[in-house]
Amino acid sequence: MAITETRQLPAKFIEDLGTDLGKQIVAQSGVPVVAPGAGGITQLAGESAADFAARQEAGRRFDVRQQSLAGLAPTVAAQDRLQQQAQQVAEAGIGSFQPFLQQAQAAGTAAGTTLGGISLGAPTTQQVTDFMSPFQSQVIDATLAEFDRNKAIQEQQIRDQQASLGVLGAGRAGVQLAEFGTGAARERASLQAGLLQQGFGQAQAARQQDIANRFGLAQSQQGLGAFQAGLGSQQQAFTGRDVSQLGTLGAINQAQAQAEADASREAARQAAFLPQQQLDRYAAQVTGLMGGYPGGVQQSFVPNPTPLQTALGIGTTLAGLYLGRKEGGRIGYKEGTDKEGIMQMAEIDTLKEEYEKYKFDLLENRPDATPMSFEEFRRMVLSGQG
Questions:
Q1: 285: domain range?
Q2: What are phi and psi for residue 300, nearest 5 degrees?
Q3: Residues 193 and 289 reside in one and the same domain
Q4: What are the backbone angles phi and psi of residue 302, rounded to the nearest 5°?
C-alpha cells in the first residue's frame, strides 16, 4: 500500500531567512552582555581565559557601538546663567542674618547693663532714714543756730526795754522774759520738727521713687528678656529658612546630577543591547514575512516498495501461478503438457526479475546499502507466500 505525504513548504527566500535567523539567535546567545568598555574589564577570580577573552571582545565591540551611537546618546541641558546666578544669590544669603542678630543682642545686653546701674536685687524694705540727705543735720543745726541767735537778740531787746522803763529785775519783767523763753522754745522745737518732717518727707518721696524705679527697671528687664526671646525665635525661623533653602538647592543639584546619570545609563544601555534589539527587529520582520507568505508548494512522495512489500507481492503472483498449475496447467497449455518444467522456469524468471527491481530500488534510495542474496530473497518470498 503506497503512502502519500503532502507538505506545505514556505517560499525559498523565506526558508533561507528563517535559517539565517536561527543561526544568528544561536550565535547571539553565547555573547556576554558587557556595559563597560574593554578598558574597564578585568579577569575575575575563577574565570577561564576563554570567558575573559569573550568579555574583552564584547567590551571592544561595546566601545565601537558607543562611538557609533554618540550622536544618538541622550543628553541633559546644563543650568543656564540665571539659574547659576540664582543659586549663587541663595547661597550668599545663607546665614546673612547672623550679624544683625549679634548686633541686636549686643545692644540689648548694653541696655540691660545701663538699667542695671540700680541693683534689682536690693531689698525694697529699706528705712526712710536710708534716703535722708547726709546734709540734713547740718541744715537743721544751722537753722537752729540762726533761730537761737535771733532769740538772743530779741531777749536782749526785751531787757533793754525793761531797763529803760526801770523795771529790770522786777517780778513782772521776769515773767515777761520767762514767757518769751517758753514761746521761743516752742518755736525752736516746732522749727526743728518741721525741718525733720521736711527731711523725712523728702526721704520718703525718694524711697517711693526708688521703688517705682525698681519696678520700672524690672519691667524693662522683662522687656529685654522678651526681646532676647524674640531674637531666639527669629534665629530659629531664619535657621529653618536656611535649611529649607539649602534643601531646595540640594534637590535642584541632585535632580541635575540624576538626570546626567540617567542619560549616561541610557547611552550605555543603547550601546550594550543594540545587537539584541537589531536581532529582535530582524526576527519580527522575518516572522511577519512568514505570516504574509504561507507555504504554497505541495510535493507528493510515493515511497518505493520495501523488500518485504515486493516479496509479498511476488508471493501473491507466484501463488496464483501455482494455483493455476494445480487446476490444470498454465493458461494456453493443454492438459498433459510438461507443465512442471514450464512453471519452474516461469517462477525462476519472475523471481529474478523482481530481485533485480529490488536491488535497483534499494541502491537508488540507499547507495551505501548491501542487497540480500537471491537465495535469501527467494526464501523471504516463499515464506511470505505461506
A1: 5-75+272-299
A2: -110, 130
A3: no
A4: -110, 100
Residue 235: how many other CB atoms lie within 10 Å: 14
Per the prediction, the chain carries an average pLDDT of 75
Q: Are 312 and 338 in contact (CB under 8 A)?
A: no
Q: Which residues make beta-bridge pairs with 300?
A: 6
Report the SS3 class of residue 130: helix
Check if the beta carbon of residue 330 is closer than 8 Å to that of residue 324.
yes
Residue 132 grid coordinates: 535722708
pTM over 0.85: no
| Residue type (1 letter), 181 | G
Same domain, 22 and 118: no
3-state secondary structure of 77: coil
Same domain, 207 and 86: yes
Give CA–CA dist 374/160, Å, rounded.
208
Q: What is the DSSP letter of 39?
A: G
- Among 307, 273, 260, CA closest to 78: 260
Query: CB neighbours of 298 closer than 8 A, spacing ≥ 6?
Result: 6, 7, 8
Q: What 3-state DSSP class applies to 298?
A: strand
Question: Any alpha helices (H) in the chain, and if so which ranges?
Answer: 12-29, 49-68, 81-92, 98-115, 136-165, 171-272, 274-292, 307-326, 339-365, 374-385
**CA-CA distance, 279 to 291, in Å (whole number)?**
18
Looking at the structure, tell me whether residues 109 and 234 fall in a common domain. Answer: yes
- 14-63 pLDDT per residue, tens: 888 888 988 888 888 878 888 887 778 888 899 899 898 888 888 888 88
CB 4 within 8 A of CB 301: yes
**How far is residue 268's CA from residue 36's CA, in Å, rounded to a whole number?**
8
In this structure, are 293 and 184 located in the same domain?
A: no
d(CA 206, CA 45): 97
- Contact assessment for residue 347 and residue 318, using Cβ atoms and an 8 Å cutoff: yes
Question: For 184-242, how does the pLDDT look when each residue is reduced to its tens digit (9 = 90+)?
Answer: 888 888 887 888 777 777 777 877 888 788 777 777 777 777 777 787 777 778 878 77
Residues 309 and 282 in one domain: no
pLDDT at res. 329? 45
Answer yes or no: do 119 and 189 share one domain.
yes
Q: CB-based contacts of 181: which residues, under 8 Å, 6+ apart?
A: 155
Domain count, the chain: 3
Residues 223 and 128 in one domain: yes
The residues, ordered by sequence, that sit 6+ positions from 17 with a Cβ below 8 Å of its Cβ are: 286, 289
